[in-house]
Amino acid sequence: MDGATLCNCALEELRLVFGPLGDQLHAQLRDLTPRGTHLWEFIRDILIHPELNEGLMKWENRHEGVFKFLRSEAVAQLWGQKKKNSNMTYEKLSRAMRYYYKREILERVDGRRLVYKFGKNSSGWKEEEVLQSRN
């Protein structure tokens, strides 16, 4: 298994290959890899890794890239932990998300509270992309 493949492995895959060390390896890789350093990647990673999701977010339409925050403040707290900002709130997180509208990475879904869509300049969220990264 090469390094890129290893970095893209889900927790279950690491447990299968490395046994009890899989959990430790997953945590270390998550801290070392640049993936997830941007807010939109953090959101994407929560959605594509159900073992990390814990009912925080859900796909409304995976094919179209539409998702919904179920526990918005909990997601904001996790983002705050990752960024070492204990004062993070959903209000601040959603303000940061608006930065991605102009860059067409995220889109707001009109008339739907807490519902967003991945834009044409986002990547790694489509099922075929996720499957390719794991193979």
Automatic annotation (TrEMBL):
> Where is it predominantly found?
nucleus
The ETS domain covers which part of the protein? Answer: 37-119
- Protein known as: E74-like ETS transcription factor 3 isoform 19
| Keyword line | DNA-binding, Nucleus
GO MF, any single term: DNA-binding transcription factor activity
Family statement: Belongs to the ETS family.
Coiled coil regions in record: none
The portions of this protein that span the membrane are: none
GO biological process terms, alphabetically, are: regulation of transcription by RNA polymerase II
UniProt subcellular location: Nucleus
